[in-house]
Specification:
The protein is an alpha+beta fold and 546 residues long. It has twelve helices and 23 strands. The protein has three domains: 78 residues, Alpha-Beta Plaits, CATH 3.30.70.2700; 210 residues, 3-Layer(bba) Sandwich (FAD/NAD(P)-binding domain), CATH 3.50.50; 197 residues, no CATH class. Helix 3 runs parallel beside helix 12 and helix 5 crosses helix 12. The structure holds flavin-adenine dinucleotide. The site of flavin-adenine dinucleotide has 45 residues, from helix 3, strand 17 and helix 12.
């Protein structure tokens, strides 16, 4: 097969036009083209009135070698790469040394699946509940202001991405096509087939719940074992003869102990108690940058019209998204960037705290993306210079802002909200306009300025008019912002070496978003696959090479 990239056709092209475009592109008569498979479909909407679909196609030809010879320098005509996933090792029958996976978000889930597929029968420890029970607790916060600190949007089977838009794209480099492996596993577990070819696929929250359950069944059938309501509270790390450190087991909250010398640590960015424990145990970590800000909501129809013009509503385009960035120029703001993050078309803003007395916002959507409002985080970059007091200072910084938001919201997990008009005019909101905020349990119109540091407020005030120039209506006076968005990525990195082990603790494999190696469902899952490979090579390296 040959792969053709950048094949462009108008949005309303006929099915036959695809075949005609391939023949024209390759200069071939019809009988030479045996088959066309769409590998990827995206769109270019930079010209609203001439939106184009952009295809990557795998074509089967009668004589592929001859065609390739005619396009020697053409980077858009190549052999289709081999993207098949190959396991790095396989455990022999009865192999007794079972790895432990802590946390079953996208990273732990993919790590556990691949370990199970290699015959390593992982034991999965998850502090939260199985996904159905967890869903009830999550709704408890949204409907009744009742937070369960161990079972919520952040904690429980499926991890932080379960109640989300389920966007499955990322800008990670992926030379070994690990993301293909993830997407294929997701489809086997019930995700729509289109995630394999859309350039910006999403699943929506309902489907994620059933997929996570289906993947659990697969892992269990392969000999893996899940333990829910099982928080790891300590690590058994022992000195080695060469002066190093080796993990020997994990301590559980219920007093239990589990021996293990290969432990995947995939705890996500909200496991603040676990980070404190790791610091106490001397596991090497360092503070890293992240971002803080608000969620902003606009009518989805406005975003659709602005991005797609007359083509708004076309089912091939779906609900429009956007991606914005502004490099600040104001005095004292040099080096700060304000950007949109985790945009959820046709979705809702959700309460995403895992700790009592704190308010955190995030966003989610259903597969249909049919809700009235578009929402996205508008966040400002912050660095350890903004929270200089040690490795855990970023957590303290997040907590303080989340507490300020709780106070400003008036309690009961209401979020503080302000219209863009009032925010830019530096006056508190007392009422809201046409854009009705979707955050549950509810919002309190107020002044958002006290919830973030002054520089962050100044940066967002500078950015909103710049965003208005890119998306007309973005700074409309009745667009609503709710606060605060603090859990954008991990405020620290648990450093690992080339072979995946922690740099100072052998057998501990920090992975995923919490360890600072991923940001989003896809990249966390890919990191899980890579980590499973590192664990298998460490456990079975000699066998794999034999
Ligand atoms: P997590 O998903 O955070 O999983 C960590 C798991 O570890 C949790 O289940 C937790 O309970 C468990 N755990 C923690 N500590 C312990 C312990 N001590 N013992 C046992 N278990 C423990 N990303 C996207 O790409 N697309 C989106 O559309 C998207 N939307 C989002 C919407 C929301 C509301 C949220 C909160 C996040 C969203 N994200 C999205 C981000 C995405 O969810 C995360 O990047 C991803 O889940 C990180 O995966 P992870 O496996 O590294 O960590």
């Amino acid at each position: 097969m040959l792969r053709l990239t950048e094949v462009k056709l108008p949005l309303d092209h006929t099915p036959e036009a695809l075949r005609a475009a391939v023949l024209a592109r390759l200069g071939l008569p019809g009988e030479e083209l045996l088959d066309i498979h769409v590998f990827r479909r995206g769109y270019d909407a930079r010209k609203r009135n001439a939106i184009q679909l952009i295809y990557t196609l795998d074509v089967t030809l009668r004589d592929e070698a001859a065609t390739l010879r005619r396009f020697p320098q053409d980077q858009h005509v190549n052999r289709t790469p081999d993207m098949a996933y190959r396991f790095v090792a396989r455990a022999p029958e009865g192999f007794a040394n079972r790895p432990v996976v802590i946390g079953v978000g996208p990273c732990g889930l993919m790590a556990a699946l691949v370990l199970a597929q290699m015959g390593l029968r992982p034991i999965i420890l998850e502090r939260g509940k199985a996904v159905r029970e967890r869903t009830k607790d999550t709704w408890g916060l949204w409907r009744r202001s009742e937070l369960n600190p161990e079972s919520n949007v952040q904690f429980g089977e499926g991890g932080a991405g379960t109640f989300s838009d389920g966007k499955l794209y990322s800008q990670i480099k992926d030379p070994q096509h690990h993301s293909r492996k993830l997407l294929e596993e997701f489809v086997k577990a019930g995700a729509p087939e289109e995630i394999l070819y859309l350039s910006k696929p999403h699943i929506g929250t309902f489907r994620l719940v059933t997929m996570v359950e289906s993947m659990r069944r697969t892992i269990e059938e392969l000999g893996g074992e899940y333990r829910f309501n099982t928080k790891v509270v300590d690590l058994d790390i022992q000195a080695t003869a060469d002066g190093g450190r080796q993990i020997r087991g994990v301590m559980l909250e219920d007093g239990g102990y589990l021996a293990a010398d290969h432990v995947v640590l995939a705890v996500g960015h909200s496991a603040r108690d676990t980070f404190a424990m790791l610091l106490e145990r001397g596991v090497f970590m360092e503070a890293k940058p992240f971002s803080v800000g608000f969620r902003i909501e606009h009518p989805q129809g406005m975003i659709d019209r602005c991005r797609f013009g007359e083509a708004a509503g076309n089912p091939l385009l779906g609900a429009a998204d956007y991606k914005l960035a502004h490099h600040c120029k104001g005095k004292g703001l040099e080096g700060r960037t304000v950007y949109s993050f985790c945009m959820c078309p046709g979705g809702t803003v959700v309460a995403a705290t895992s700790e009592p007395g704190r308010v955190v916002t995030n966003g989610m959507s259903q597969y249909s993306r049919a809700e009235r409002n578009a929402n996205a985080a508008i966040v400002v970059s912050v660095t350890p210079a903004d929270y200089p007091d040690g490795v855990l200072a970023g957590l303290g910084f997040q907590r303080e802002l989340e507490e300020r938001a709780y106070q400003a919201g008036g309690g009961a997990y209401f979020a503080p909200a302000q219209t863009v008009g009032d925010f830019l005019a530096n006056r508190p909101s007392t009422t809201l306009g046409e854009v009705v905020p979707s955050y549950k349990p509810g919002v309190t119109p107020t002044d958002l300025a006290p919830t973030l540091p002054d520089y962050a407020i100044a940066a967002i005030r500078e950015a909103l008019p710049a965003f208005e120039r890119q998306v007309r209506g973005y700074a409309r006076p009745d667009a609503v912002m709710t606060g605060v968005e603090t859990r954008t990525s991990s405020p620290l990195r648990i450093r690992r070496g080339e072979s995946g082990h922690s740099v100072n603790t052998r057998g501990l494999f920090p992975a995923g978003e919490g360890a600072g190696y991923a940001g989003g469902i896809l990249s966390a899952g890919v990191d899980g696959i890579k980590t499973a490979e590192a664990v298998a090579l460490s456990l079975l390296g000699d066998i794999a090479q034999a």
